[in-house]
Amino acid sequence: MAPAxxxxxxxxxxxxxxxxxxxxxxxxxxxxDADGTLWGEDxxxxxxxxxxxxxxxxxxxxxxxxxxxxERRVEExxxxxxxxxxxxxxxxxxxxxxxxxxxxxxxxxxxxxAMTGLTRGLASLGYDVWIVSASNRWIVEAAAPSVGVxxxxxxxxxxxxxxxxxxxxxxVPLVCREGKVQAIRARxxxxxxxxxxxxxxxxxxxxxxxxxxxxxxxxxxxxSLLATARERGWPVHxx
Length: 239
Prior knowledge:
- With 239 residues, this protein is of the alpha/beta class.
- The chain contains 10 helices and 8 strands.
- Helix 3 packs antiparallel against helix 4 (78-87) and helix 5 crosses helix 7 (137-143).
- The longest helix has 13 residues, at 94-106.
- The chain starts with 10 loop residues before the first helix and ends with a strand.
- The mean pLDDT is 96.
C-alpha cells in the first residue's frame, strides 16, 4: 500500500515512486531542485528583485535596469547568468543577507504542500534529502525548512565570504546544468538515487539519477523538459 504522502501525485508518478519507498538498508540520496519544483516560483530571482528595488546592492547602479541585464545574461549562458546575480551581491554583509533571506522566506507563498510531504516522507524512510539549486545559497537555506529540508542540506550558488562580507569570487562548480552533477559528486561521491527537477537547468542531474522525476505546470505544458520527459518515459507530475 502506498504511503499517504504519495496520494497527491498522479497515478503514473506514484507508480514510478512505489518501488523506491520500500525499506532498504542501503544508503539512498534524494536530490530536489528548488525553484519550480519544491515551490512554484523562483525565490532567488524574487530576492534579487527585492535587493534591486531597495537599492541595496552596494556595487551595482540600481538606477539602471539591472534585472534586464540579468535576464540577458541568463539567456546567453544560464549558469553564468545565475552566478552574476549572486556576484552582484558583493559587498553585502553576510549577516544582512541571512536576515533579509529569512524575512523573505517567512513570507514566501508558493511552497507546494505535496512536495513537502514528499521530502518528509522520503526522509522518514532513511533517504538523505538535499536541495540542489541554482539560486543563491542564503535564500535557499532560509526557505528550506518550509519544505521539510534541513538548511544544512542545501547545495546552491554561492560566492566566497571574506571578513563577513560577500565577495564576487564564485564557489565552484556553478550549481546549474552539469554543475549540479559535479557538485553532487564532489559532496557525496555518488549519483542520486532519486532526483526531482522542473527545467533544463536540472537535465544533467536527472540524467545522472537512478530514477528521475519531472515536475511541471499545467499552464505550461510544452516547456522543453516536459517534452524530454515524454520522449524518455520519465514520470511527470503537473501542478
